[in-house]
Design goal:
The structure holds 2 protein chains of 2 kinds. Chain A is of the alpha/beta class. Chain A contains 7 helices and 15 strands. Classes of the chains: A alpha/beta, B alpha+beta.
Chain lengths: ~250, ~100
C-alpha cells in the first residue's frame, strides 16, 4: 500500500481512547479517503468495531509512563516505522480531528520526514510557549508524515535510543518535562540525526485546543468548546484536541 | 452604557478577534501547495516572485517552504496553480470574516 494513516489507541484506567477513535476515524476516512491502521492492545481492541478501510494491529504495548499521576501509554511511537504497512505514512495522535484534506497536500512531497514545530492555540490565548523549557526547540509529534527511507529509519531508531536514556537526554538538553514525551524525544532525535543543524518541518502551525478548553460538541463539520466561560467553534479546519473529555461528548 | 453593555462589547470583540485569527490560520494552511514534490506557500510573495521571474526567464529555480531548490520548468502552470490556491483560500477567509463581523 502506497499511502495510509497510522494511529495508536491504548485505553488507560482513566481514559477511553477508543471513544475518541470512534469520533476521529470517520473524519479521517471521509476527508482523506485513505486506509487506516490502528495500533492497539488486546484490552482496547475489544472496544474497537470492525470498519471498512480500517485495520487493527494488536501489540503488547509498553507501560510505565505517567502524566498528572495517570497512566500514559505513549512509549511505542518509535515503532511506527516497523509497524506501518505503508510506504508513506501519516502518523497521527488519536485526538487529531481531521476536517480537511490538508494532510493529503502535505503528504504529496518528496520529503521523507515532516513534523510541526509551531502550534496555534485556537482559543486565542497563545498558551503554548515552551521556548524556555528546553535547550532544543520542541516539535509536535501529533502529526508526523514519513516515507520509509534509511534516514527515516535512523530517526525512529534515534527516538528509541533517546527514550531508553530519557533522563540523560533531559539533563543534556535541560528539558523541564521529566516524564517521557514523544514531542521532546523526536525533537532531540531530529537534532541529533540532523547533525545538530536542522530538519524539515510542516510549514504551517498545528491548530490545537488546549486541555483547559472543554469540548462541548463534536460534529461532522466542527468542534465547539468552552474556555474560561467563553464559547468558541472551529469549522472545516483540522484541530488537535487535548481535552480527554471529548471522549464523552 | 452600563458595565454589562461594556462587557458585551468586549466579549464581541474577543469573539471576532479569535474567529479572525483562526480563519487566517486556516487560510494559511489552505494556501500550502504541493508541486513537483515540494511545498510552497501560495502567498503574495511567492506569486509575485514567480510572476517576475516568468517575465524574464523561460525556466528558473525557486526555494520551497523548507528552502530546498526546485527548477521550475513550466512557470505558467505553477503561477496558475499558485493563484488558484491563494484565491480559494482567501475567498473562504473573506466569507468567514464577513460572517464573523455580522454575527459578532
Amino acid at each position: 500500500m502506497m499511502k495510509g494513516v497510522l494511529l495508536y489507541c491504548f485505553n488507560t484506567e482513566s481514559y477511553r481512547y477508543d471513544k475518541i477513535a470512534a469520533k476521529t476515524i470517520p473524519l479521517l476516512r471521509r476527508n482523506l479517503g485513505l486506509e487506516i491502521t490502528v495500533v492497539t492492545n488486546d484490552e482496547t481492541r475489544v472496544h474497537l468495531p470492525e470498519q471498512e478501510g480500517v485495520n487493527y494491529m494488536v501489540i503488547t504495548n509498553q507501560t510505565g509512563n505517567y502524566i498528572n499521576q495517570k497512566s500514559w501509554h505513549n512509549l511505542d511511537r518509535h515503532r511506527a516505522y516497523e509497524l506501518s504497512p505503508y510506504e508513506k505514512t501519516i502518523l497521527l495522535d488519536i485526538d487529531y480531528f481531521c476536517y480537511s484534506d490538508y494532510l493529503l497536500t502535505l503528504s504529496n512531497t518528496d520529503q521523507d520526514f515532516m513534523v510541526h514545530d509551531k502550534v496555534h492555540d485556537v482559543t486565542g490565548h497563545d498558551s503554548y510557549k515552551f521556548a524556555r523549557n528546553s535547550m532544543v526547540p520542541m516539535v509536535w509529534a501529533t502529526v508526523i508524515i514519513f516515507k520509509k527511507t534509511p534516514r527515516t529509519k535512523a530517526i525512529f531508531d534515534m527516538v528509541k535510543y533517546v527514550k531508553e536514556r530519557y533522563s540523560y537526554f533531559c539533563d543534556l538538553y535541560r528539558v523541564d518535562f521529566k516524564n517521557f514525551r514523544n514531542d521532546y524525544a523526536f525533537a532531540i532525535a531530529l537534532h541529533q540525526i540532523g547533525g545538530f543543524k536542522g530538519y524539515e518541518t510542516i510549514p504551517n502551525r498545528l491548530p490545537t485546543l488546549p486541555a483547559a478548553a472543554k469540548i462541548t460538541e463534536v460534529s461532522a463539520t466542527h468542534v465547539s468548546w468552552n474556555h474560561q466561560g467563553r464559547h468558541g467553534k472551529i469549522s472545516s479546519n483540522d484541530v488537535h484536541v487535548i481535552d480527554k473529555g471529548v471522549a464523552d461528548v | 452604557m452600563d458595565v454589562d453593555q461594556l462587557k458585551d462589547i468586549s466579549d464581541r470583540s474577543y469573539r471576532i478577534a479569535v474567529n479572525k485569527k483562526n480563519a487566517l490560520e486556516k487560510a494559511r494552511s489552505s494556501m500550502i501547495l504541493a508541486y513537483s514534490g515540494h511545498l510552497f506557500q501560495a502567498n503574495a510573495e511567492t506569486i509575485n516572485l514567480v510572476q517576475v521571474l516568468k517575465n524574464k526567464l523561460k525556466k528558473f529555480v525557486i526555494l520551497d517552504s523548507n528552502h530546498n531548490p526546485m527548477m521550475v520548468e513550466d512557470p505558467e502552470e505553477l503561477l496558475e496553480r499558485l493563484i488558484t490556491k491563494q484565491q480559494e483560500a482567501l475567498n473562504i477567509y473573506h466569507q468567514s470574516y464577513a460572517e464573523s463581523i455580522s454575527k459578532g
